[in-house]
Amino acid sequence: MRVATLGATAFTDPLITLFAKHPEIGDDYLEFRGVVESHAAAMAAKRANHVDHGRIRDCLRQIDAANEPAQEDEADIALHLVIYEASHNKVLLQIMRALSSNLKSDVIQNRSHMFNIPEMREVLRNQHHAIGEAILRRDPETAQHAAHEHLAYIRQASNKIQAAQTELNLSLRRLNGGGISLPAQKQ
Predict the structure, then answer these.
(1) How far apart are CA 81 and CA 151, in angstroms?
(2) Measured in whole angstroms, how far is the alpha carbon of residue 47 from the centre of its chain?
(3) Mind listing the pLDDT tens digit for each residue in 46-72?
(4) Among 78, 75, 88, which residue's Cα sits nearest to residue 42?
(5) Closest among 146, 40, 50, 133 to 89, alpha carbons compared
(6) What region holds the GntR C-terminal domain (predicted)?
(7) For residue 45, which of 127, 134, 129 has the smallest C-alpha distance?
(8) How many Å apart are CA 116 and CA 137, to the nearest integer?
(9) CATH class for domain 27-173?
(10) Angle of CA points 45, 50, 56, to nearest 5°
(11) Buried-state track 9-31, b at ≥16 Cβ within 10 A, e below 16
(12) Domain boundaries of the chain, sorted by first residue
């Protein structure tokens, strides 16, 4: 008897369909990431080896050296994936790798809006350093807390940006003679 490998698409296709049909679940996705990433950071603080530490340091240096959003996006994504790898939990790693395209689009979408707010870039950089440095110090509680705070911040900022965009769209519709229609409520 053999067990067939479950392909990433068997896992991600239903999620991609869900995201496509219900874009309002973006907040649920960020909530999920907050839970998973905070625990991954704690595990990485306990389990990371010298190779993992070197890769985390490289990602932090790349974030610091980035002089345009696209470079920082790539370093941001790489840091999150390296943390999953440093957790040394193969199931977690495979699930988050399968979701990495969502992670990438989530990071890029959030950053494209967040870079319009000057102090936000520095806040994100500092949050990434707090997570990485806690892992490097082998401090699981601080790593978990820093990752949780980072995703809570992203989630809060994303919700504010989405609300502002909704208000702007309503104003533009009124300006163009359109009626007022309220966005669908999250169920």
Answers:
(1) 15
(2) 22
(3) 999 999 999 999 999 999 998 887 788
(4) 88
(5) 40
(6) 28-153
(7) 134
(8) 33
(9) mainly alpha
(10) 65
(11) eeebeeeeeebeeeeebbeebbe
(12) 27-173
Residue found by looking up tokens 């399968």 in the block: 98
Q: Decide: helix, strand or coil at residue 75.
A: helix
Tokens of 182: 């309220």
- From residue 112, alpha-carbon distances to 56, 63, 94, 155 in Å are 24, 16, 27, 15
> Which two tokens mark 142?
């601080």
**Nearest partner of 45 among 111, 120, 125, 138, judged by Cα:** 138
Half-sphere exposure of 142 (CA within 13 A, CB side): 14
pLDDT, one tens digit per residue, over 144-168 is 999 999 999 988 888 887 777 778 8
- Six-digit token string for 129: 């350093």
The helix or strand, by DSSP H or E, that contains position 114, with its residue range, turns out to be helix 100-114
Query: What is the token pair recorded at 58?
Result: 């490289």
Burial 128-166 (b: 16+ CB within 10 A, else e): bebbbbbbbeebbebbbbbbbebbebbbebbeebbeeee
